[in-house]
């Protein structure tokens, strides 16, 4: 009983840490899945002639209108937060730098650097840079889809083996009963 009293709290703490780590991993994976979509929307809006600030605002606004009631997406939440910071009067350069830091993933830091570069140097050549980054993002998305597919097939292996055992039992039990009787 004393051992259980000592071990049980440790197990609870370990379980909480594991669930927090799983949640963080799932959140990061979701952010990586959202990156190509955000980048392609941004590229499309900038290519249509909308300035950077309005393009970011529009992506955030569309998320709040259409996606947020269904599910919360961390990357879009940070983007919406960046829009609100700009509306409160913070400088765009500072907001984009903060946005890259908050997201914490390399692709988003790259995007943040591109946005800051866009502010400093202007829009000349920016479409090309964003298109290249979007192509890299799509490639990354395809690679991630392959990995998820492999994980799914590995997870399905055990249930398939169980079904095979059940089929063998269903076939062998009647045969064994007919031979023994």
Question: Could you characterize the architecture of this molecule?
Answer:
- The chain is built from six helices and no strands.
- Helix 2 crosses helix 3 (74-87), helix 3 (74-87) packs antiparallel against helix 4 and helix 5 runs antiparallel to helix 6 (126-180).
- The protein is mainly alpha-helical and 181 residues long.
- The model has no long low-confidence stretch (mean pLDDT 88).
- The longest helix has 55 residues, at 126-180.
- Helices cover 88% and strands 0% of the residues.
Task: Provide the descriptors you would attach to this structure in a database record.
181 residues; mainly alpha; 6 helices; 88% helix
Shape verdict: elongated
Task: List the helices and strands in order.
Answer: HHHHHH
SS class: mainly alpha
* Mean pLDDT over the residues: 88
Beta strand count? 0
Number of helical stretches of at least 4 residues: 6
Oligomer: single chain
Distance between the termini: 53 Å
Spans of at least 5 consecutive residues whose pLDDT stays below 50 are none
* Portion in beta strands: under 5%
Main sheet attributes: strand count, strand direction, barrel closure: none
Indicate the percent of residues in helices.
over 70%
The radius of gyration over CA amounts to 25 Å
């Amino acid at each position: 009983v004393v051992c259980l009293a000592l071990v049980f709290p440790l197990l609870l703490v370990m379980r909480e840490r594991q669930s927090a780590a799983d949640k963080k991993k799932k959140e990061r994976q979701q952010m990586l899945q959202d990156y190509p979509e955000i980048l392609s929307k941004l590229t499309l809006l900038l290519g249509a002639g909308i300035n950077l600030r309005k393009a970011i605002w529009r992506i955030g606004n569309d998320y709040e209108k259409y996606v947020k009631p269904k599910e919360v997406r961390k990357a879009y939440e940070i983007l919406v937060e960046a829009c609100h910071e700009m509306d409160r009067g913070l400088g765009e350069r500072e907001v984009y730098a903060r946005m890259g830091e908050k997201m914490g993933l390399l692709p988003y830091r790259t995007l943040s650097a591109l946005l800051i570069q866009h502010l400093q140097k202007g829009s000349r050549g920016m479409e090309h840079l964003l298109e290249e980054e979007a192509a890299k993002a799509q490639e990354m998305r395809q690679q991630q889809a392959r990995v998820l597919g492999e994980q799914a097939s590995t997870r399905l292996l055990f249930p398939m083996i169980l079904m095979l055992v059940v089929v063998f039992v269903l076939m062998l039990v009647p045969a064994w009963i007919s031979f023994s009787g």
